[in-house]
Amino acid sequence: MAEAIIKVSREEIKGYLKDLKTGDTKSRAVAAYMLGTVGKKNKNIRKALVNSLKDKNWEVRKWAALSLGEIGEKNSQLVPILIDVLKRDDSKEFRSHAAVMLGELEKTAITAMPDLHQASKDENSRVRDWSCWAIGKIVGEDFRSRSNYPEERPKLSDRIRIVRKE
Question: What's the rounded Cα separation, in Å, for the pair 19 and 55?
């Protein structure tokens, strides 16, 4: 699958960073998502998203955690929020991505094991499969002997509609 390319100007990034601090709930959530699409190498964006993990609104915390997971952040502060997404989000896509990101945190996400075990019984096969994969990653299983797991992790940006600030 081709990777989604999202072009965001420097001015838009500045606007999203401002929205993340001072915007209304929807603006902060959109900013957390959009900054995650461009923040892989930007320390200021990573720092702003880490700070948003403490936002009073759950949607903002969820997007900040998903964005940080997407850009490869290994921060232990992600674990409780990703567990929350895994347990309570209505979207099977967000639940499956939370499982993927917990697996990528490996030993840091050991506290997620009971919730991943529960998610391995989810009604959705993607959530089940990725939860089992995450459990294996956390305990250090060698996946080369297991052919039923995909080689490449799904990208969050490939699965959700791009949201732009209006």
Answer: 13
